[in-house]
């Protein structure tokens, strides 16, 4: 007998990391052939678990097989996974990763068959962490986890996965792992990473990482500050370089930097300098999307260095153009008097701006919302505007206040996806709110305004083909697929087994032909719309006067803005904001 044959066979621990999707209005899981956004939670956990496996945390006689599954782009074949686990004597664990409130019902539906088969399951993410942080530990259906015997992991995983794996290997997962009061540093920790097979299932072959966590601001609708804290923690430039190089080895160079506010990362300049070096000296063709606040243009060299580092798109939480609304939402860092200067600074670098706008603040009415969108279209040089319904997300201050006051909120967590109405409004019925949400997408992405957006792009050096791709997605997702563009992708896929429990199962004879017809119809609409957008972009690109184009939004900021632009005069709060800005300027100029 050879030495190899005499050696004891190593056990193989099966670690399944699953990022759940959620159910669409049709009752089927939202899943795409190619999804829009990569999951940073999944990448983070995969990177951490991979490092633990390399250190043999379960001992030298145990191998850890890790599989990452993002349900937004991959079907979860539960029977197949159960057979795999059974072949290893159920020696393993299912981790439900980064579960948001709207994904929680689907996460539990995934957990049930695994728990019925005796497989250990743990759930983490913003829902369970936010509920434990802000509520009483039993609220918002957390007992459903306990009843199933699913372990709850609250907080962040860096430095904690070894214990979780060791407990699972012994078959003794604890009911609760609560690290909310002990947020780890992330400097020098394993970096987010996903294998190429996973990355290929996203649009544009892109992945993600967080350069920092935590946010100093106190927006009342936000869950991040109550889960990741208000104290910022950072990765080093060496960490960022390591993850960029690891991804570049597999041909990936596009990243969504998921920091809620990269501009407030104290090491932003060192990180951007390292990315600039990687791009300009090492030849890695970086393409970056970052999220920043509306005062980032005041940081010297920030926007210029972002451009050199490879930033092509930037997301801004605009939320409202009403100062009173921003104040009520604790969004004090947003100053409408700075919006135009900030947006024009990004435009000057040829960077596409995407901005979020929330519908359903207390003062909102359908009429006021549409009027505000008209002002934005005329006076702010935003490229892509995306809309959200104000949603009392579990883990936010808004939700906590409503919960403590006993105010009714939608009992179906699947609807907490920031596009469904989940609580009552003082001035709008639920139907009126839902109707105006649908209407604003058509209103902003009207044919006339789409041409305006393309003309602004041509004037400011933005690639028109990039704008066409974004306009195609953001103009169609809601009307065609009834999902927010950030939840969209290419070719919505369904399977009869993925319908929400409690809803009738469709006959396969009817299901598959209907799905094929629906895909054919939607593909026709998409191709027709793409052709129409391309024709407009081609006409704009061929216009010899394209660089002469101007409008109110592209006009340089001047003292006349406050009297000529409706954004500064349409409400008393707007006028007060201008007066306050002028008072501060006069005082500071006087001091100088």
From TrEMBL:
Entry keyword Iron-sulfur: yes
Classification via InterPro entries: BchE-like (IPR051198), Elp3/MiaA/NifB-like_rSAM (IPR006638), Methyltransferase_Class_B (IPR034466), rSAM (IPR007197), rSAM_horseshoe (IPR023404), rSAM_sf (IPR058240)
Pfam family, one: Radical_SAM
Radical SAM core domain: residues covered: 201-431
Alphabetic keyword roster: Iron, Iron-sulfur, Metal-binding, Methyltransferase, S-adenosyl-L-methionine, Transferase
Annotated GO CC locations: cytosol
UniProt-recorded Gene Ontology molecular function terms: 4 iron, 4 sulfur cluster binding; catalytic activity; metal ion binding
PROSITE patterns noted in UniProt: RADICAL_SAM
Protein name: Radical SAM superfamily enzyme YgiQ, UPF0313 family
Organism expressing this protein natively: Rhodopseudomonas pseudopalustris
